[in-house]
Amino acid sequence: MATDTLGHAWALDWMERARAAVSAERIALIDLDRAIGDGDHGENMDRGFTAVTAKLATQAPGSPGEVLKTAATTLMSTVGGAAGPLYGTAFLRASKAAGDAVDGDGVVALLDAAVEGIQARGKAEPGEKTMVDAWVPAARAAREAAADGPVAALRAAAEAAATGAAETEPMVATKGRASYLGQRSAGHRDPGAQSTALLLQAAAEAAEAQ
Amino acid sequence: MATDTLGHAWALDWMERARAAVSAERIALIDLDRAIGDGDHGENMDRGFTAVTAKLATQAPGSPGEVLKTAATTLMSTVGGAAGPLYGTAFLRASKAAGDAVDGDGVVALLDAAVEGIQARGKAEPGEKTMVDAWVPAARAAREAAADGPVAALRAAAEAAATGAAETEPMVATKGRASYLGQRSAGHRDPGAQSTALLLQAAAEAAEAQ
Amino acid sequence: MKKLINDPGDVVTESVRGFGLAHPETVRVNEDPLFVCRAGGAVAGKVGLVSGGGSGHEPLHAGYVGQGMLDAAVPGAMFTSPTPEPVLEATKAADGGAGVLHIVKNYTGDVLNFETAAELAEAEDITVRSVVVADDVAVEDSLYTAGRRGVGGTVLVEKIAGAAAERGEDLESVATIAEQVIENVRSMGAALSSCTVPHAGQPTFDLGENEIEIGIGIHGEPGRERIPAAPADEITDRLLNPVLEDLSLSSGEKVLLFVNGMGGTPLSELYIVYGHAHDVLAARGVEVSRSLVGNYITSLEMQGASITVLRLDETLTELWDAPVGTVALRRGL
Amino acid sequence: MKKLINDPGDVVTESVRGFGLAHPETVRVNEDPLFVCRAGGAVAGKVGLVSGGGSGHEPLHAGYVGQGMLDAAVPGAMFTSPTPEPVLEATKAADGGAGVLHIVKNYTGDVLNFETAAELAEAEDITVRSVVVADDVAVEDSLYTAGRRGVGGTVLVEKIAGAAAERGEDLESVATIAEQVIENVRSMGAALSSCTVPHAGQPTFDLGENEIEIGIGIHGEPGRERIPAAPADEITDRLLNPVLEDLSLSSGEKVLLFVNGMGGTPLSELYIVYGHAHDVLAARGVEVSRSLVGNYITSLEMQGASITVLRLDETLTELWDAPVGTVALRRGL
Ligand SMILES: Nc1ncnc2c1ncn2[C@@H]1O[C@H](COP(=O)(O)OP(=O)(O)O)[C@@H](O)[C@H]1O
Ligand SMILES: Nc1ncnc2c1ncn2[C@@H]1O[C@H](COP(=O)(O)OP(=O)(O)O)[C@@H](O)[C@H]1O
Ligand SMILES: [Mg+2]
Ligand SMILES: [Mg+2]
Ligand SMILES: [Mg+2]
Ligand SMILES: [Mg+2]
């Protein structure tokens, strides 16, 4: 049977895997952003998650909530651009939802809170070719898998995020920098949706490794 | 037998052929100057000789001296750069030497005067990789052929100038812009020597056509 | 990529440091968090002006810190808006007790980060007003975009609002002046070549040997359309016409005409554009009564230019003419 | 070649015309022959200052016409020194009865054409003195070259001699000041990419993806050596060291440090160079007491920078600080 709840070890491992993933995909994210934005998304995310794990290394957080709160404030103060406040808010809201331990429903609560935070700040709806297009299906998929526990929920979320990111390719952007391109934004994957897929894949892998 | 003396018709035809030659070789001269200078020699010469023939079209010069004087002042006031004052002075002195008609010795006098003018202004000696390396052998060759008349003298001068221009290739420049290159100027033909060869070729062709 | 840089990660800090060393009589650089303020600090009783955004648009914004213009500027990472913290600290450094105006260019990142900083500043009892510059007519201002980008008009907002603050107007009135400029300024740009972000290492976009991008943003965001290379007069028309349409200028009105270089275009070319734009305006009966030509808001080494037109009235003209003593714009001081 | 130009043959005239339209309060453009003079014309009783040379180095020289600097500038064809006639006419337009100083950059063409113009002016009873700027240490000053080129130092000569003339010194003393600057200023530049002369249509030289030309001239004349791409600090050392050696500065001396962009390099990179150059000078005990950073003498769209160092004494410092009111350099006016 899968793990029943995920604690701070999971959250720490998530952040470490997120850092590694973003760092490995730095150039790929830059290239996606060069195509429909300004070419900095990989650099921004890499800088942010490097800072997150460095910060966490100086602390001894006792709960997933604490880990995610540190991640939130660090991202907020190091990423900049559009992604900084959006991911910062997502993780801040998620940290409150996460609390001390995360079960299947906890994963749903965490992802729902993240989506709410992103939409509260960025005002984007699904279909506008932003990170929302990865987060929204992820939260929905998690809800459907929640009964199978947090690991299954995160795995489902990760897969839905990956699909969601891929599905941004044909979309025409109407939010963020890519919206300046109008029709010409179609045919390129949204960098923020792609980084979301990486982050949720890291969360699932960390859960599976618990 | 060859023509004994050359008059204003020759001089006018010379200028027209010079214009055509410089215009046809504009890019080639620019390319030579790009290699060891600043890439403007073809443009400068083209501008200058276009102005010379335009100016002559408004006048009715009665002697080679008058034609060359108009050429001199027009070159002086339209070419600019190093070539402008040098060719301007060359033609000004040549115009005085040319007078009303040019025989074999007249060709020698004309070329000698041009060489003196160029050296008075530019202080270059043969071997410094400048137009002097085309003019000096041209004047020498004309002297040797002078007894055969002006056409032969100009033909000899043209051929010597062409050889002289080719011989600038291995030289290391010590005057003009190419001197900044030092040793790296070797291996490229001097643009001013090349334009001199074109001008004297035009002079010979015009003489042959009389 | 060939650049006069050391480590791509150090470009912004090393550059801002050099800027501080070169101009100690005008600015002071705060290294952590990174912001630039006036050498003398905040002016007591004066409304403070703060702007900022991603780096790579130099001399914007740090070049406009000084008497008659900004009190502080916040350079973010390359093409990346700064985070709230340095904006907050710059806001504190700019506050002379009369409140602070944030001049924000309309990009999602800038808006979000400045918004947070303003909240944080309010929490520390500093009154903050924000204006958002959105002058780029290349972007349709509609439901289908993040709204018009802030480009060349930003420089004019900073100068004119700066002059209003300097002559002692209060926060409300400085903000009103800034809004008036924003309402009356429009811009559009074209790129002949891409810029290369140092950490990306390759050009942001690829333009063919004979292609021009019309409606380019200042971050190398692609523009409205890609056209074959054309004479300067035609490119100028393509930039100026949408600007004039949007401003709906009438004959007899006065404008400031600002031709801006994107960083890699020779000044001589900007003056060719200026000359034709001037002729087009004159033909419409519009009087160009003030001008600005040069590299004032750039996109690294991008080749290209933008045209900005500001409708002038007496107040704006007077404020434009007021003395200014910054590194990049100086007159009467 | 992509440029914001119309016909390549019209670049200079169209550009200078635009310049005149943009800055009527500072300059007046004479179209035939082409020169630029102060809007108000010659100043009675003041020594007139005239400079000029090939175009393509903007804002040099026309950008330096105005109070406290030049009285007239003569733009030649692209990279081609002007002919004597416009120099003569500019000299007449600059003559306020106290004689005229010609500031000539040391290139065969400039020297010859200005020489002739000076003779012609003397024939019209205008006293002319000429100084020749030759500050480029990349060129060995020897029998084997046309002598050192005039580069960045020219801007400083024009500013400082201009201030001397403005405060009423006579021709002899203005020329002496100019000579003092010339003796104490040295420069060297590097190119990361070539420029493209409009009428040539292709780059003046080819640099490999990873090559830098050290000791480049401002017309794209090749330099001292070609080296592999290197960090900014190393390039700065390679430019600065020969300059310092040639000037043989001692600890305790004061200098003006001028980092100039060749036209296509972002300002942010110039400040990186400035920062390191400043550190190197400080480490040698040399005090950088004045600075200038920006695109002041360019080579069309060339990427690269030059470093100029001027040894300062009290007189030169005072003259440097004096008010100046030109399009490209303005302070206190
Ligand atoms: N309004 C928004 N709502 C949600 N996500 C957004 C919004 N605007 C931008 N994004 C996301 O941010 C990503 C870009 O981030 P980044 O490149 O780091 O910032 P910037 O656009 O400021 O350069 C986009 O790919 C998109 O997913
Ligand atoms: N001192 C000199 N004496 C003779 N010829 C010279 C001298 N300096 C330059 N030249 C000639 O001038 C040519 C360059 O002319 P041009 O390119 O028109 O002028 P610039 O060098 O000013 O760009 C050189 O190729 C050389 O033949
Ligand atoms: Mg981006
Ligand atoms: Mg040349
Ligand atoms: Mg960005
Ligand atoms: Mg030349």
TrEMBL record, chains A, B:
The question of whether Zinc-finger is a record keyword is answered with no
Q: Which species does the entry assign this protein to?
A: Georgenia deserti
Q: What is this protein called?
A: Dihydroxyacetone kinase subunit DhaL
Domain DhaL span(s) in chain numbering: 9-205
Taken from the record, one Pfam family name reads Dak2
NCBIfam families listed in its UniProt record = dha_L_ycgS
Domain of life (superkingdom): Bacteria
Q: Please verify whether the record's keywords include Glycoprotein.
A: no
Q: What is its EC number?
A: 2.7.1.121
Keywords from the named record: Kinase, Transferase
What GO molecular function annotations does the UniProt record carry, in alphabetical order?
phosphoenolpyruvate-glycerone phosphotransferase activity
From TrEMBL, chains C, D:
Locate the transmembrane regions by residue number: none
The record's gene field reads dhaK
Q: Which GO terms describe its molecular function?
A: phosphoenolpyruvate-glycerone phosphotransferase activity
Q: Which superkingdom?
A: Bacteria
Q: What is its EC number?
A: 2.7.1.121
- What organism does this protein naturally occur in? Georgenia deserti
| Protein name per Swiss-Prot or TrEMBL | Dihydroxyacetone kinase subunit DhaK
The protein's UniProt keywords, in alphabetical order, are:
Kinase, Transferase
Broadest EC class? transferase
Provide the DhaK domain boundaries.
7-329
